[in-house]
Write a structure and sequence with these properties.
Helix content: 10-25%
Number of strands: 9
Shape: globular
Order of helices and strands: EHHEEEEHEHEEEHH
Number of helices: 6
Strand order of the largest sheet: 2-3-4-5-1-6-9-8-7
Distance between the termini: 24 Å
Largest sheet: 9 strands, antiparallel
């Protein structure tokens, strides 16, 4: 079963590692040529830290070089939340996700301020991505096979009687699904080692199960309907995640 209609649950031991919301719009060139000082003033209370970097773009067909894009970043004091702005998108990401309501609330003011200041014609893509890292050690499930914790669609070969999980070097599933007439999901799932960024960073020896959901709504989404679009994607995300986990894993995640 890929989807579940179980009632929405909040897990005290949720495995979510990072959540990213990105809204893409037709290019606004002035964003690349002038620092967004007015937007900074609007969000500075919650995002007091500021940074910017130039990002290279691939050449055009025929090999013609493109000018770099400036990525403006506004960060919370502890660095756990980041608001990013380029000439093509605005995004909010966090490594400290504690529920959809607080995430949506954190996005409300920056998004409303961006729409007021830059007046995008519409959003070409509204995206919501959940990167989940399921740790058996953290959940007290050391020794429990992934096949008992994750739905069959995502563990495939690990269900075979003659396959020992410890002998499998790599096992991943990649799906692209239509969720309804306007929404789609790109899903990557499978066990593996998660590398920590940074030179000399101590690496985690535990293999985790990665469940990465990138949900999106395409077309021309009115700016007035962007919040509703994100609510729709969040609803789909819950159905997909609940369809991917077993009752044994739900119990370990400790539903509230």
């Amino acid at each position: 079963m890929l989807f579940s209609d179980r009632p929405r649950a909040h897990y005290r031991n949720a495995p979510v590692h990072e959540v990213i919301c990105q809204l893409r719009f037709p290019t606004i060139l002035t964003i690349n040529t002038a620092a967004p000082a007015d937007l900074q003033e609007a969000v500075r209370e919650e995002f007091p830290r500021y940074a910017q970097r130039q990002e290279a773009r691939p050449p055009l067909p025929g090999g013609q070089a493109q000018s770099p894009v400036v990525n403006y970043a506004f960060l919370s004091e502890d660095g756990a939340w980041k608001l990013s702005l380029t000439q093509d998108f605005i995004a909010l990401s966090t490594l400290r996700y504690d529920g959809w309501e607080s995430f949506a609330q954190r996005l409300d003011k920056p998004l409303a301020s961006f729409i007021r200041l830059y007046r995008p014609a519409f959003f070409q893509r509204v995206g919501l991505r959940y990167i989940n890292l399921i740790s058996r050690e953290r959940l007290g499930l050391v020794g429990t096979p992934w096949a008992e914790l994750i739905a069959p669609a995502y563990v495939g070969p690990l269900l075979e009687e003659d396959v020992r999980e410890a002998s499998v070097v790599g096992c991943g599933v990649d799906l692209v699904l239509k969720l309804d007439s306007s929404c789609a999901a790109k899903i990557h799932a499978g066990p593996g080692m998660v590398k920590k960024a940074g030179a000399g960073a101590a690496q985690d020896p535990e293999a985790k199960f990665v469940f990465d959901m990138d949900l999106s709504m395409g077309g021309s989404v009115s700016t007035a309907l962007s919040a509703g679009a994100l609510e729709t994607l969040h609803g789909h995300a819950g159905r997909v995640f609940e369809g991917a986990v077993t009752d044994a894993l739900r119990e370990a995640m400790d539903p509230a």
